[in-house]
Amino acid sequence: MPVQRDHASEIAAITSHPTFKAAVEVLDADHDRTVADIITLTEIPSPPFKEDRRAAAYLEMLRAHGLEDVEQDEIGNVMGVRRGTGNGGLIVVAAHLDTVFPEGTDVTVRREGTRLHAPGIGDDTRSLAVLLAFIRALDAAGIRTRNDILFVGDVGEEGLGDLRGVRHLFSKGRYRDQIEAFITVDSPQVDKIVVGGVGSKRYSVRFKGPGGHSFKAFGIVNPIYAMAQAIVELGRIEVPETPRTTFCASIVGGGTSVNAIPEEAWIDIDLRSEAAEQLARLDARCREIVAAAVEQENAIRSTSEGGITVDIRTLGDRPAGNTAMDTDIVQFATAALQAHGFAPTHEASSTDANIPMSLGIPAIKIGSGGTGGRAHSLAEWIDVEKAASVSGMTASLTTILAVAGFVGE
Amino acid sequence: MPVQRDHASEIAAITSHPTFKAAVEVLDADHDRTVADIITLTEIPSPPFKEDRRAAAYLEMLRAHGLEDVEQDEIGNVMGVRRGTGNGGLIVVAAHLDTVFPEGTDVTVRREGTRLHAPGIGDDTRSLAVLLAFIRALDAAGIRTRNDILFVGDVGEEGLGDLRGVRHLFSKGRYRDQIEAFITVDSPQVDKIVVGGVGSKRYSVRFKGPGGHSFKAFGIVNPIYAMAQAIVELGRIEVPETPRTTFCASIVGGGTSVNAIPEEAWIDIDLRSEAAEQLARLDARCREIVAAAVEQENAIRSTSEGGITVDIRTLGDRPAGNTAMDTDIVQFATAALQAHGFAPTHEASSTDANIPMSLGIPAIKIGSGGTGGRAHSLAEWIDVEKAASVSGMTASLTTILAVAGFVGE
């Protein structure tokens, strides 16, 4: 029987330790530098699949912060190791380099008092700067951990990036077999700990047919009817409320002229579930529906000019997973937040933590501190008021230290 | 009981008359000039709703050809009168100024032997030049008609132009109460006489809803489901084969992000029939279907954030109509083609003639002569080989003279 750990006591041992207090003082004293780093990194555009410029800058920052084995991997992640005392394994602390904003988006930071406005500034650029602040604070206070900590700026967290950076880290990266726990610092809010990874399958279903003149060719198959039939059936699927499972017909397109039977129509579909088996079931049902809709259209209208065919292209495939409430990583994060006056809640979401969760590796998402809003919109903002910012950072640093094995000396 | 006219004999009386033969010789001798006019007019772009430049040029050409009362009306049509002998009414001979090609399309004519390639060259620019050739031939041969002939270059025949030029001519134009017959010369082919006007109703049906996050807001109404339900029901409508009646879901769109329930989805629908009452029935059924689909979506999913609303915007409304086979205009055209060695067939289509047909005014579409193909594509071409061109032009001129009342001296 495993020893029951008293997580609150372990957290208290950290927060009361003089070296930890010294580290917090550094976070506080160093705050302007952290804000400057946030602005610097935010103003380096990092569109989906084009994170190179920001990755290069962050690589240099990691190197300047004295990490070891600083490198960029094949997929584009940049990382470096802060060595532990040698008797532990390796944990990952990551923030994502990419934003949702396309090339050409104005990423100039506009400051109003303690509010900073810019696309991507909270999600997740602030976290990149906060990881650097953590390294400086740990170094200045002389704090050691048992585990090595791999600090990572990863690519492809958003949208069609499909978690490709962290997926690579766990499937092909050189550390893939050594990672004992994974913490992603994503967006400012700290009191919501993400412990569930909502899985998703996204695909674009493209129906093709012969096309023809709307009047002269009337009676032949029309890919829009096949698609509509599939969408109607999709809308009728029954899904459980718990584990939460959803479907969505999201984007639809097709056709070129009002007087033509179109040659193509397509629908982008988003399927999600907190549970892997529910997601698999939903995915299978959706594919059945598409096949049946094509078959029906080819049966009820003429295929004399050719029938309807269909092609399903995967847009995204994020595995579902979760980290149990009674695991150390969740208990430490919860106790750390409570110790710093927060009232933590536990949620499921889709983050870089999905990948390790799906592999059974303890993983959570925590916050970068302070407040923010309007993520994924051009009006995105964060507040860098010092007290709130440092308080949130302190809670997150406490969690990281507990998971990495704080060495009290 | 009306006197039964012998149309073939009347046609023979025209084609055997010395002045008619003289006119045909002019068509032949003048062919290079006609080809030059085709090129000149084709190279003046005339996109939908932007026929002004070509209209201005054609107005000057009509004036230079000695017509009376040359003018441009409020909607953009240009026209002029060739006076009859005064004991007849007025007939219209029209060709359309507009093409389907957008602004910026390269309309340079490329010549390969007797083939001319350019967007819009056959549909319907060639006909504009042919009307001028007819005027020159009639004048050179000294041919008179009983009726006044109003030569018209009209706007808005294609697509969303929705026949607005000819619609204006018959609803608000100064000649609206005097027109006894209408002949549109549209595209090269002469052996298919259009005697039926396929009516159409086209609309864009736009479904709107509150939109939301695909996972977090799951369960709320989605405009794509309402639209799909309407499309499926549209596809189930039963329509008669005769009079030919058709429907088409043509263009579909909506949504912006794969992880969002969209705020909008729309479908462009094309409804057609050779019979006005069938078209009206189809239109009514389609509107019922849309309303029911919206109602269903609002009933089966949550409207807590707002319900689905729908807006139907008319894209086109072309009245159905036809000119009976036993009318003089159809009989003259048929006999004229036969007299020149063609084997005419009779068809229904959607042309400028729909408007007078729907008003009970005798109307047909005839051809400009020669051959052509790939209309409405960038690869559009015509062949201006002289013998075939003049033969087709001669048949069409014969029809016009018979309808206008050829005066044999």
Automatic annotation (TrEMBL), chains A, B:
GO terms for molecular function: hydrolase activity; metal ion binding. Keywords: Hydrolase, Metal-binding. Signal peptide: none annotated. Residues 199-295 form the Peptidase M20 dimerisation domain. This is Peptidase M20.
